[in-house]
Amino acid sequence: MYGEPPDERTARRVLLKLSGEAFADPDVKYGIDVNVVRRVADEIGQAAAHGIEIAIVVGGGNIFRGVSSAAEGMDQASADYMGMLATAINGMALRDALEKVGVATRLQSAISMRQLAEPYIRLRAIRHLEKGRVVIFAAGTGNPFFTTDTAAALRAAEIGADMVLKATMVDGIYDADPRTHPDASMIEEITYLEVLARELQVMDSTAVTMCKENGLPIRVFNLLKPGNIVRAAMGEPVGTLVYQERES
């Protein structure tokens, strides 16, 4: 028997996972759309102004994806490292936009690039958050063969986040792919086990399992709808909530 979903209003520290593809220039489907980055930064600033501590993991799919045709024939580890560098580019763009709207921000990288970012140090990241700074984690886990979804789940657990906010290009989790099934229905609440059993494409299974093991609820919502980041961070029921099945 399912228990009640957690009360998101108690969330104090969140890990926001941003889709790199959402940063892409809509005309060419790659690169960085500065207007999107500015809007995202403004919304993050609004949420931070309400006292929410915000850490961010951003993907790099708008610049390079290890599973794309651009990586065809390439060694997988090399392709993954290139993808990590792409996340650093997006992280730098977002940090710049956040600083321009007055939000103190730190960029930490799992791969050493001291001229561009701090090295990832868990306790330093937590200290930044406690001081009201936004922290952006770049370069995934620093290891190939792991997705940025898994990096988001890992960092969320490490910093003691209360929730993972997964910002995507769809409204939430559907019972079928809405791009190919027009009659697909969005699911408002679902447990981790159901997501895994039904192989719903919300996050990779490693990330979902890690969130489950650490009791981290996941809120999946549409990044492209203005205001959704603030609503999700403030605990409003946007998109889909993935939560732990409780004992009956």
Question: Can you put this structure into words, describing what you see?
Answer:
The chain is an alpha/beta fold. The protein has a single domain (12-243), classed as Acetylglutamate kinase-like (Carbamate kinase), CATH 3.40.1160.10. Helix content is 33%, strand content 19%. It has seven helices and eleven strands. Strand 1, helix 1 (34-49) and strand 2 form a beta-alpha-beta unit. Helix 4 runs parallel beside helix 6 (205-213). The radius of gyration is 17 Å and the shape is globular. It starts with 12 loop residues before the first strand and ends in a 5-residue tail after the last strand.
Report the end-to-end length measured between terminal Cα atoms: 5 Å
Number of beta strands: 11
CATH architecture: 3-Layer(aba) Sandwich
How many domains is the backbone divided into? 1
Query: Rough shape?
Result: globular
Helices and strands, in order, run as EHEHEEHEHEEEEHHEHE
State the name of the first-level CATH class.
Alpha Beta
Main β-sheet, in a few words? 9 strands, mixed
Tell me the helix content.
25-40%
Rg over CA atoms: 17 Å
Q: How would you name the CATH homologous superfamily?
A: Acetylglutamate kinase-like
Mean of the pLDDT scores?
A: 90
- Count of discrete alpha- or pi-helical segments spanning 4 or more residues: 7
Task: Give the uncertain stretches in residue-range form.
Answer: 1-6
Strand ordering within the main sheet: 4-3-5-2-1-6-10-11-9
